Amino acid sequence: MALHASEHPLVRHKIAELRDVTTEPKRFRELVRELATLLGYEATCDLALEPRTVRTPLTDARGYRLTGTIGLIPILRAGLGMVDGMLDLMPHAEVWHLGLYRDEETLRPIHYYNRLPDGRTIQVSLVLDPMLATGGSAIAAIDVLKRGRDVSGPRIKYLGLIAAPEGVAALQAAHPEVDIHVGVVDSHLDQHGYIVPGLGDAGDRQFGT
Asked: What does the alpha-carbon distance between residue 13 and residue 32 come to, in Å, rounded to a whole number?
């Protein structure tokens, strides 16, 4: 549907710190979590609400609650770092797991683990992965997600930190109905499929490997 690249000053500030080669794994993980919260706030501005009445110390007041089931799907392993930031916003969200890794020779995703629910009614599914490089992992994840359930009603969104134009174009071509929310779109991919200027391997930098 649409590409949303954040222009929030806090996102820009934290993305710069995230890129810095001197940022240690502990701080890197903190930044991933913080950015997930900020970007998640922007990505969830259209969640459905239902009215409710609450009792204040003085009187009744009209309010709202989120309605429907929200699923968080981190792509293992780098996507795990984004989960806690999203759960800070939505503690009631369900967390599923999907294992994909990129073959360094072909740059194609290899699917090795799937803990997605079958036959569930999900209103919004948020696919979490810090880097949208070639787009292969995001496309494969959404393919798997769609195969498991009826996609006529539920909405799927992609949430990442840094994207390459090539990955954005590939994801939009494969799944044009999926909204893409990222912190920034970088210049290009290099010959090895890494985002430039990027930040290196997000999984390695989170986990110190």
From this structure: 12
Residue 112's identity, in one-letter code, is Y
Rounded Cα distance, 74 and 23, in Å: 23
Query: Alpha-carbon distance 93 to 73, whole Å?
Result: 10
Task: Read off φ and ψ for residue 102, nearest 5 degrees.
Answer: -95, 125
54-67 pLDDT, tens per residue?
Answer: 999 999 999 999 98
Under DSSP, the state recorded for 193 is S
* Domain annotation for the chain: domains and CATH numbers: 3-207 (3.40.50.2020)
Backbone angles phi, psi at 67, to 5 degrees: -120, 150
Amino acid, single-letter form, for residue 86? M
What is the per-residue pLDDT across 82-94, written as a single tens digit (0 to 9) for each? 999 999 999 999 8
- Residue 191 exposed, middle or buried by CB count within 10 Å (0-12, 13-18, 19+): exposed
**pTM exceeds 0.85 for this model:** yes
Catalytic positions = 102, 106, 201, 204
